[in-house]
Amino acid sequence: MPETPLLAAEAVPAAGVPRRRGFGRLRSVAAVGPIGTVAAAVCLLLVAAAVLAPWIAPHDPNAVDASNVFAPPSAAHPLGTDDTGRDLLSRLIHGSRLSLLGPLLVTVIAATLGTILGVLSAWRRGWLDAVLSRVFDVLFAFPGVVLAILAAAIFGAGFLAPVIALSLAFLPVTARVMRSAALRERNLPYIEALHLQGVSGLAICVRHLVPNLMPLLLVQATVGFGYAMLDLAAISFLGLGPQPPDPSWGVMVANGKSAILGGHPEQSLYAAIVIVVAVVAVNLVGERLAVHYEIGESS
């Protein structure tokens, strides 16, 4: 790790007003290389499938057809059917909606609250920093899946309870990363220059400090999205997430496990492959963004 802070500020102009560089960095990290480009294309394809699911799915994902139970792949059913005759391709496409929406909500909630609390802790310091640090330590003691299981036991299985529980589990990770970065950022000359100009602490944080932390937050959120997807898929596999007949990839893996011994692993296999591909693609995008960002800082 170089001596220079990860998010070092650019030189303060002669007028004493620092230039924002957060969104400029976001443009610079777009060049993620060929591996990152392929991974980003996969991510965009999955998002497009989720958004356009009602129009591109060949069949109703919940339509039961007893005459086509475990049908092999065909023109009518490109991936075959499950134990009730439902089209697997349609269920995979529609399943992308809940499977992507859940991690997205977890990431947005954790990133938003984590940034607010992390920056507030770094800016105010003192007793507030100590209290928030202890709260984060307590949340760190509980794995996300355990919190989600507890939430499902208290509030019942479904979509919302695991999302809220995982958001609380992911929050301290983001908060600590943002607190550490904000501590380094606030010691840079442009913060003092703004203070001398009479700019309030709230304005400095909102207009300058937080935008300068955005590239780091983007990388953190991208990697966190992949972990949230895995955790939510595991919770759905345990039967504590979205409930049948609503399709999600974790539910499909769980529903198909009973047919594996009967020689029909297709449902579980296809859903598991999509989960792995999605998580790997998201993590590759996050890693390539992080690598490119470090190169940009060192250059």
Automatic annotation (TrEMBL):
The chain crosses the membrane at residues 29-57, 100-123, 135-153, 159-178, 216-240, 268-286. It is found in: Cell membrane. Residues 96-286 form the ABC transmembrane type-1 domain. It comes from the Bacteria. Keywords: Cell membrane, Membrane, Transmembrane, Transmembrane helix, Transport. Gene3D superfamilies: MetI-like. Pfam families: BPD_transp_1, OppC_N. It is a multi-pass membrane protein. InterPro entries: BP-dependent_transpt_permease, MetI-like, MetI-like_sf, OppC_N. Signal peptide: none annotated. Belongs to the binding-protein-dependent transport system permease family. PANTHER family: OLIGOPEPTIDE TRANSPORT SYSTEM PERMEASE PROTEIN APPC, PEPTIDE ABC TRANSPORTER PERMEASE PROTEIN. This is ABC transporter permease.
